[in-house]
Amino acid sequence: MRSLSYYRDVDRPGCDIHSDAEPLQLNCTGYYTNEKPFHMHNITGRQDFYLQYAAEGSLCVHSFGEPQTFSAGMFVIYRPHDSYRYELLAGERIGYYWAHFTGFHVARMLTGLGLDTGHIYRTDGGEAGKGRILGGFARLFDEFATRRPGFDDACAAQLTAILVELTRGADKVSTGPVRRLASVAYLHGHYQEDTRIADLAAMEHLSESRYREVFRRHTGYSPGDYRTALRLQRACDLLALTEDSVTEIAAVCGYADVLYFLRVFKQKKGMTPGEYRRRTRTE
C-alpha cells in the first residue's frame, strides 16, 4: 500500500486547525509508509490532536524523552502543542495510519475512554480487531474521496468508532514519567520573555543543573534552545501569513535587536527571513 493523504481543507497548509465549533472534527487522515531512514521532531506540535496507529514495521518513538519501540499493533495520541519525536532507523520499515482531529468534545472523550496522550499503547484485539481498525480507516478515506452529504458527521462517527476499538484492546506500553513539566507549558505561553533558567527550574522544584538535565531528557533540547525554537516557529508563521516587517516580527517574537534576530534566524533556518518569506509564498 502506498502513502495516502486526505485533507478536509486543501487551502490550509497541513490542515493544522484548532476549532471548537464542533464536538469532533476530522482535519486530515492518511497512511504513511517508508523504508528509508528519516527523523521527525516537531518541537511545537500541532494545533490539533494527532493519532498514529502502526500497521506494520516499527519506529523509534521518544515518549517522554525516552526511546520506545513503536511497532505493528501499537498506537499513540498527541495532544495539541505537544512536541513529538520519532525516527525510522536504518534497515527498518514502517507503515502507519494517522489522523489529526479537533473539537470541544475531544479532551472529554479521550478522558472517558481512559486514554492518556503521549503514551504508547498496544492493542490485543487479534486479527479481527486489526481488521476493524483498518476497515475504519478505509471508510474514512472513502468519505474524503467522495465528500457525500453528511461528510463531517460520518467522519466524526467513524473516527469515534476507531478510537473505541483501539481503547477496548489497549494495554499501555510506554514507561517514563507521567509528570508534565509546568515550565514547558510556561515557555509556550511566554517564549517572547527572557525568563531566567533559574526561575524555570524553581517551577519544577529542581536545582538549575538538575533541571537542565531533566528538561533535555523530556524535550531533546536545552531550555534556551527550546525557547529559541518556539520564537523562530512563531516568526516563520508570521513571515508566511502576514505582511508585517521583519523588525515588527522580531519584536513580537522577543528580539529587541533585529540584527541579532537576523543572525539567529539565518543560523537555525539556513536562510534569511526575507528568503523564507519568498520561498513560502512561491511553493
How would you summarize the topology of this molecule?
Layout (H helix, E strand, L loop, with lengths): L3 E4 L17 E10 L3 E5 L6 E15 L2 E6 L2 E5 L5 E5 L5 E9 L3 H8 L6 E4 L2 H21 L4 H18 L1 E3 L9 H9 L6 H7 L4 H12 L3 H19 L4 H7 L5 H12 L3 H10 L1
Helix pairs in contact: 2-3, 5-6, 7-10
Task: Report what the structure shows.
This protein has helices spanning 106-113, 126-146, 151-168, 182-190, 197-203, 208-219, 223-241, 246-252, 258-269, 273-282, and strands spanning 4-7, 25-34, 38-42, 49-63, 66-71, 74-78, 84-88, 94-102, 120-123, 170-172. It is of the alpha+beta class. The chain folds into 2 domains: 4-172, Jelly Rolls, CATH 2.60.120; 182-282, Arc Repressor Mutant, subunit A (Orthogonal Bundle). Strands 1, 2, 3, 4, 5, 6, 7, 8, 9 and 10 form a 10-stranded antiparallel β-sheet that branches. It is globular and about 60 Å long.
